[in-house]
Amino acid sequence: MPQRKAETGPAEKALIAGVAKPRSHTNLDPMDSPATIDAATELKALIGLGRDELEAEIAGLGEPAFRARQLWHWIYHRGARSFEEMTTLSKSFRAKLAGRYSLARPEATRDLISTDGTRKWLMRFADGQEAETVLIPEGDRGALCISAQVGCTLNCTFCYTGTQSLVRNLTAGEIVGQIMLARDAVGEWPSPTHERQITNIVLMGMGEPLLNYDNVARAVKIALDGDGIAISRRRITLSTAGVVPMIKRCGAELGVNLAISLHAVTDELRDKIVPLNRKYPIAELLAACRAYPGASSARRITFEYIMLDGVNDSDTDAKALVKLLEGLPAKVNLIPFNPWPGALYACSPPERIDAFIKILQNAGLVAITRTPRGRDIMAACGQLRSESIKQRRFK
Fold first, then answer.
1. For position 27, what pLDDT does the model report?
2. Range 53-90 burial, b when 16+ CB lie within 10 A, else e
3. Same structural domain for residues 366 and 243?
4. Average confidence (pLDDT) over 62-91
5. For a surface tag, which of 158, 259, 309, 395 has the fewest beta carbons within 10 Å of its beta carbon?
6. CA end-to-end span of the chain, whole Å?
7. Inter-CA distances, 173 with 85, 220, 299, 304, Å
8. Residue 387: inside a domain
9. How far apart are CA 83 and CA 127, in angstroms?
10. Do residues 183 and 49 both lie within one domain?
11. How far apart are alpha carbons 30 and 228 in whole angstroms?
């Protein structure tokens, strides 16, 4: 696909000169996700098991299948935190469950609330590793931004998470556990049908969801189940930097909304600020978007574009973005850069962002500027990070 050459500012020249070097993002160690055993109690974790897996566990105890349905209801619809709460189950069955299984969520070791109402939790998992989760309330709705990995392997140069090496993938239970802990915190059990505080789930936290697809998919299917957490697939968005081979599978199997972290209009620049582009360049990424199942003018693909002063924010960039997205059911989300310690960049000034978005809108693109939320507690887009490090394995 032909592309216009963007104007090159000083910051972009520094990047193209090779300031940032990406880490490897392929061949993740399958051991990076821990077993589904609560390390504190050595009991098997039930949170994260799908319906079939839960039924298999209950069958293994010699119990009838309807017990699994009851258990599902208590775990994912009512949010039970102990087996003793499950009063529709016999005392003997509850005791049997308590001796074998755990309902533990992640532990919130830090709970911060911004002046704008945004809330951020530092989640500690059973092995002591940590990731961040953010709730962004707005009027009568709220988006919960959840993480898929501890750290990240993609090394996007504008993202604070990118400064933290990948520690490991999160399990399905740790992913869905973030939703459950957030619901605990806001008192949203049993799963409401109306007037929810958590209306949307966005996989836009730490890590690349499509590099942990199996666990993400299992967690999403649990969240979608109408007899449990019951979030509509139209209210779940998965954001990817562009793991092209997994995009079609995600659409076919999950059918959730897709967001693309685009951020540049030329491969030359995107290779530097989103190093995954070296493996899956813009033309391949956009071809995968055109083939995304279910994409339409009613369900547009969101293209996220961070506004970096002097790097990717020129009029030429805006016009090139219009051309790149021609014919796609696209929505552009301009993201003012959110600062973090040691960042290479500054945010584009407001007048530059306004000029950029007017070019997009005048060309007929649906485009908005995302209002930064939670900057004062480092909860805004691109500001998430934990202090977890990968432990060396000794033979």
1. 39
2. ebbebbeeeebeeebbebbbbbbbbebbeebeebeebe
3. yes
4. 96
5. 395
6. 49
7. 20, 11, 28, 28
8. no
9. 23
10. no
11. 29
Beta partners for residue 87, in sequence order = none
**Residue 373, SS3?**
coil
Alpha carbons 307 and 350: distance in angstroms, whole number = 10
- What pLDDT shows up at residue 39? 61
Among 5, 11, 10, CA closest to 337: 11
Angle at 159 between CA 153 and CA 160, to 5 degrees: 85
| Nearest CA-CA partner of 242 in 197, 200, 273 | 273
SS3 category, 202:
strand
362 assigned to some structural domain: yes
Number of domains in the chain: 2
The answer to whether the beta carbons of residues 206 and 159 sit under 8 Å apart is no
Nearest partner of 20 among 125, 142, 140, 163, judged by Cα? 163
> Cα-Cα-Cα-Cα dihedral of 169, 306, 286, 200, to 10°?
60
Q: What is the pLDDT of residue 17?
A: 42
Which of 55, 132, 174, 188 does the annotation list as catalytic? 132
Strand positions, DSSP E, the chain = 37-38, 43-45, 101-102, 107-113, 119-124, 130-138, 141-145, 149-150, 168-169, 200-203, 236-240, 257-261, 301-307, 330-336, 366-369
Distance (Å, rounded) from C-alpha 128 to C-alpha 244? Answer: 32
Question: Is position 301 within any domain?
Answer: yes
Structural domain boundaries, residue 349: 10-19+106-377
Task: Answer whether 0.70 is exceeded by the pTM.
Answer: yes
Annotation marks residue 132 as catalytic: yes
In contact, 157 and 308? CB cutoff 8 Å: no
Q: Are residues 309 and 353 in the same domain?
A: yes
